[in-house]
Design a protein that fits this description.
This protein has about 375 residues and is an alpha+beta fold. It has three domains: about 110 residues, Roll (DNA Polymerase III, Chain A, domain 2), CATH 3.10.150.10; about 110 residues, DNA Polymerase III, subunit A, domain 2 (DNA Polymerase III, Chain A, domain 2, Roll); about 120 residues, DNA Polymerase III, Chain A, domain 2, CATH 3.10.150. Strands 14-11-12-13-26-25-24-18-22 form a nine-stranded antiparallel sheet. Strands 6-2-3-4-17-16-15-10 form an eight-stranded antiparallel sheet. A five-stranded antiparallel sheet has the order 5-1-7-8-9. The radius of gyration is 25 Å and the shape is elongated. It starts with a strand and ends in a 5-residue tail after the last strand.
């Protein structure tokens, strides 16, 4: 194998596939990146849960393949001069890397033991813009659970039906839901994608309208981003019936400027230095004002913001971090917040559309 490519292109490819290289594994070959030269120059990382392959623009001199330690390879390439890089594999998988006056010899591994990415049938597929998927992930990923005792909640539910795509994440204390229309699409999909996969994909996707294609089978999903493909296992099991948690009934509704509410909660949380659930931020709502307050061993914070109120007076407490994460994910200037009882969850919706729903559980005081 012998190939020449630019340092910048090679670095970009390494950075992408390293997202699928495990930090700890009992299989040394998985700590490597598979380099393949055939019709194109392809890099692959695979930790058996998520696999990423990336095509790198290059001048292929000789076909072949090798596995090289990901950390060592990445560190070397990043430190090379900004010039053309020559990679050549010699006998016994010895890899030479040359760039201007720099020369490295690295012991590689046979590609025979490197696991191939699962083959995904391209029957059930739909296209969608990178920007939409990237935004929907970022606007819901914070609510994915990290509790391995409830594995189904460590992923996001991705539904596609009737020309609409929906992302849902639940961690037991909050729910994040985002919807978007997909024009000219009749595909149906209902899968639970690991949060880790979505988090890594969001780092690869660009905030552009270039399309990606999503394929799925019963236990695998593939995101085809042109020169890059991400394949991931799906989480098996039945996702929670989240619709039953979203009620239209409310005792009190407020319409509020999102940025005013976010800034107020952030200030109120400054004195909360210990257990956030023990010291909630409390909302006192009456007429057209809302008092945001917190009281801890450090001290007390209180401030008033203007709101439009519909319904009864209410006071209710929340974990401030949950509210802050949610408000930061919302791109609307004005939102509606619904409260059913002083102990029940609140529901946050847009004023004029149904593109998102956020639910946050109240804290008992």
């Amino acid at each position: 194998m012998k190939v020449i490519c630019s340092k910048d292109n090679l670095t970009e490819g390494i950075n992408i596939v390293q997202k699928a290289v495990p930090t700890k594994t009992s299989l040394p070959v998985l700590e490597g990146i598979l380099l393949e030269c055939g019709d194109n120059f392809k890099l692959t990382g695979n930790d058996l849960e998520i696999g990423i392959e990336c095509l790198v623009e290059a001048d292929i001199k000789e076909a072949g393949s090798v596995v090289i330690n990901s950390r060592v390879f990445g560190d070397i390439v990043r430190k090379l001069p900004d010039s053309e890089v020559l990679i050549e594999v010699k006998e016994n998988n010895l890899v030479t890397i040359e760039c201007e006056n720099s020369y490295f010899e690295i012991k590689g591994l046979s590609p025979q033991g490197f696991p191939a990415l699962p083959a995904i049938k391209k029957d059930n597929a739909f296209k969608i813009s990178q920007k939409i998927v990237r935004d929907m992930i970022k606007q819901t990923i914070f609510a994915v659970s990290t509790d391995e005792n409830r594995p189904i909640l460590t992923g996001s539910l991705v539904e596609c039906k009737d020309g609409e795509i929906t992302f849902v994440a639940i961690d037991g204390y909050r729910l994040a839901l985002r919807k978007n229309r997909i024009d000219n699409n009749s595909s149906e999909l209902r899968v639970v994608v690991p949060g880790k996969t979505l988090n890594e994909i969001s780092k690869i996707l660009q905030p552009e309208d270039d399309e990606i294609t999503i394929y799925s089978t019963s236990n695998q999903i593939m995101f085809d981003i042109g020169n890059c493909k991400v394949v991931s296992r799906l989480i098996e099991g039945e996702y929670l019936n989240y619709r039953s948690s979203i009620t239209e009934d409310y005792e009190t509704k407020i319409r509020v400027n999102k940025n005013d509410l976010l800034a107020s909660i952030e200030r109120a949380s400054l004195i909360i230095t210990s257990d956030e659930r023990r010291f909630p931020v409390v909302f006192y709502i009456e007429e057209d004002k809302m008092v945001v307050t917190s009281s801890t061993n450090v001290g007390t914070v209180k401030e008033e913001i203007n709101v439009e109120t519909d319904g009864n007076r209410i006071d209710i407490g929340f974990n401030p971090r949950y509210f802050i994460d949610t408000l930061r994910a919302i791109d609307e200037d004005v939102i509606d917040v619904y409260f059913a009882t002083s102990l029940g969850p609140c529901i946050i919706r847009p004023v004029e559309s149904d593109n998102f729903i956020y639910l946050i559980a109240a804290v008992r005081r």
